[in-house]
Amino acid sequence: MSDTTPHAPLGPEGENPPVTSPAIGQDEWVARHLDRRLPPRLGKVEERLRQVPWWAWLTLFIGAACMLPVFSSSGYVRRIGFDTVLYMMLALGLNVVVGWGGLLDLGYVAFYGIGAYTYALLASDHYDIHLWSVVVIPIVVVIGAAAGFLLGLPSRRLSGDYLAIVTLFFLQLFQTLTVNGDQFFFDLGNVTGGANGILNVDPLDFFGREIAVQHNGVFAVDYYFIALGFFAVVFVALRFVNLSRTGRAWRSQREDPLAAEVMGMPVNWLKLLSFAFGAAVAALTGVLFASLNASVFPLSFYFVLLITVYTMVILGGQGSQAGVVLGAIIISVLLELLRDPAHARDVFYVCVAAGLVLAFWRRWKVGLGVAGGLVAFGFVVHAIAQAIDTSWTAGSGGACDPTAGTCPSNWVDVWVALPDDLASWIAPVSYIGLIVAALTLTVLTGWWRIVLLVPTLYLAAFVWENVMLAKPEPTRYIVIGVILISLMILRPNGLLGERRVEIV
Amino acid sequence: MLIASAATDKFIALTVDGLTLGSVYALIALGYTLVYGVLKLLNFAHGDVVMIGSYIGFGMLRLLGGSNDLVIPWVLALIVITLTAMAGCAGLGVAIERFAYRPLRDAPRIAPLISALGVSFFLAYSMQLLFGAQYRDYDLFSLPGNPLFLNGFRIDNVQISVVRIIIVVSAIVLCIALWFLVNRTRTGKAMKATSYDREAAAMMGINIDRVIVFTFVLGSSLAGAAGVLFAIRVPTQVSLGFILGLKGFTAAVIGGIGSIPGAMAGGLILGFAESYAAGYWPGSAGTRWTDLVIFSILILFMIFRPQGLLGRPDIKKV
Q1: ipTM of this model?
Q2: For residue A481, which residues of chain B lie inside 8 Å, CB to CB?
């Protein structure tokens, strides 16, 4: 927890470089905020980095991403890479609607599903239609954009809240239609395959030549490169849109729709356009998803995915393309690490260490004290627990799977108490206790906060090891929820987003 | 004549079913509307508060000995369960407001909405982490003598069980109590004033923070009651919060968000729509398409009457 509130200036006024006069149209406070950004030396580095044009960054990034299969021949890593690229595209699309358009679109992943299902219907054994990918992809993009447009139509007069409910219900409706689409009304027959989905979807092809998904049983790297290619196209296209008249109009109607309208901008049309752009990108991503998995299921496109993509956009910073890509990478890798309890253990301690460093950057002596206190506190509790009953420290935590017989020993075994047999009341009590302690921390100030921080962190380690690691699935999404809430409160502009100032 | 009477029976049965569903939706919608009226915030986490309410009720029922071995009479037990759930949810609502929404009160409007999404996600999966994803049944069938489902009265040939009467009557009682609180007490007046104009209310000496906390107490305790009333008839599960929240939310929008009678009306409309859609859809698969019917109603309202049935149109000030 930082000791500076988000609005406090980062240094005493005297140390700041002379204030440059704000550019036209820029609020003075924002301009000065940029000046206050970093101490002089780091500030110069940052200034240099800012001067590197965006296409250089993009080339560098794509180049680095292309090296991934070179460094790792594991099909698992390539698959994760592919999924991450899909997430990056989804985040880019959502960024158009949320970041630039300023619209809360909660039906976004339905368009992803629409893209995937359209591809599956037009290129599979389901209706025995096998169109070429070069034909299907434009169709899917157009259908996706049209669907976005249609959904936007009833919402165009409405403010953010109404839009949220209409789009969220649209997502629910999409779910209902796909789950029950095996027995459609009006005797349409089996359209979506119901809960069983559509199987045997064709892989992508290049003018009729199929691109195999697997190569000798290992994930074929072709798809990774294809996805990267699509990503690059989408990124550049959206970049140009954002730099165009339309992009500027989006941002101005986001800041103040009324003023934009008075200036003669077609606000409703702009909203619909941003909806359609986001939906088209999502639909395109759906093609990649369906072709790689060779199947589509209704549950792949639901609320969970929606919140995940939202977290990526918020974490990276709404409105910043580089930011949402970074957010997508971080969240995708994090979710993957949390899937495996053995990795998840280490993730926790890395995060705690990183959090302590960030929080006590300016007061490193206090930070060292907290870290030392935490280590000592842990050993003391562990020793006491062992002295009372050896079974309290004899277990190996939730990461251990007794049926599989795999209980990887870890260096924290001697530090955190891992009861052999967790009584059923311990899980709820310790978990709720942790929430209460964490919330209390946010209320306390001064030394009390630092004193309480140590036992809270230890309790967190205890809960993580014993309760949360045992159930990776809910744990992953709890982490997402916590990231979302704390980001909104601590840093609503995300990692790379520009800070937005409401001018009253 | 026989056919006509069968049709009437079906209509009566569906109406009763719609009324039962609708009163629960109305209670949930009231929570959305109250919070929206005062904070102009759509509290996405409300549905999950409802779900947690039904779990608190379940836990309390267990503490009282379970449905087939109650230590107190069942009427008393039901009251105790409902009150516990209401109290628990009220506490939860206050905590959510204090820690997730209050820091964002002056942020751009999209910020608390996203925070609310995070809270909803956090609550739903915390419950799944602690209590698993299986269905929890109050199992009130096993009450000795099965007083809830066997008894009741008849209209024509339709049996109306006690449990439905309890649901509808409790919902009505809670609505009347709410109406009384909002219209006949000082705090209620303060709530109204805050919802008209927060700054002006603050200048008139109204403690805005207290009013907002009180609103969350009201809304969340209604959610707790709704959770129990829902779960005494059908088993509850952690993912139910999303669906119930969505329905309540839609009901509030249809009725006119911010309007208390509107939320009740919207809840009933939704309940009837769902029940009639399930019953009268051509063919046998009506229950599958209720969502489609509700969505169509929502879209029609959005196009022709975006402020909802009883809501005031949103006037933009320049």
Answers
A1: 0.88
A2: 118-123, 125
- Domain residues for the domain of B218 are 22-241
Residue A455, min C-alpha distance to chain B (Å): 21
Return the closest-CA partner of residue B79 out of B60, B62, B93, B107. Answer: B60
Are residues B130 and A488, on separate chains, in Cβ contact within 8 Å? no
CB contact under 8 A, A482 and B118: yes
Which letter, b or e, does each residue of A147-169 get, where b requires 16 or more Cβ atoms within 10 Å of its Cβ?
A: bbbebbebbbebbbbbbbbbbbb
Task: Report the half-sphere exposure of A204 (CA within 13 A, side-chain side).
Answer: 23
Nearest to B293 by CA among B280, B284, B310, B303: B280
Domain assignments of chain A as residue spans, ordered by start: 13-51, 54-60+76-339, 344-470
Subunit contact A169:B246, Cβ cutoff 8 A: yes
Q: How many domains would you assign to chain B? A: 1
Q: Is residue B277 part of a domain?
A: no
The mean pLDDT of A134-159, rounded to a whole number, is 85
Strands A218-219 and A129-130, by their bridges, are unpaired
In a domain, B64, yes or no: yes
B271 part of a folded domain: no
B179 touches chain A (CB under 8 A): no
A499 pLDDT band (50/70/90 cuts)? low
CB contact under 8 A, A258 and B294: no
Give the Å distances, CA to CA, from A132 to A111, A202, A210, A328, B54: 21, 10, 9, 30, 52
How much is the pLDDT for A398?
67
Which residues between 420 and 479 in chain A have a beta carbon less than 8 angstroms from any beta carbon of chain B?
Answer: 427-428, 431, 435, 439, 442, 467-468, 471, 473-475, 477-478
Helices H / strands E in chain B, number of each: 11, 2
Residue A165 contacts B where some CB pair is shorter than 8 Å: yes
- To the nearest whole percent, how much of chain A has pLDDT over 90? 26
Contacts of B105 in chain A (CB under 8 A): none
Per CATH, the number for A54-60+76-339 is 1.10.3470
> Cβ of A489 and B283 within 8 Å?
no
Other beta carbons within 10 angstroms of residue B201's beta carbon come to 21
Contact B100, B116 (CB under 8 A): yes
Per residue of chain B (318 residues), give pLDDT as tens. Answer: 445 577 888 888 899 999 999 999 999 999 999 998 888 888 889 999 999 999 999 999 999 988 888 888 888 999 999 999 999 999 999 999 999 999 888 877 788 888 999 999 999 999 999 998 889 888 888 887 777 777 777 777 778 888 899 999 999 999 999 989 988 999 999 998 998 888 899 999 999 999 999 999 999 999 999 999 999 988 999 988 998 999 998 999 899 888 888 999 999 999 999 999 888 877 666 677 888 888 889 888 888 887 888 877 665 554
In a domain, B272, yes or no: no
A154 and chain B in contact, CB less than 8 A: yes
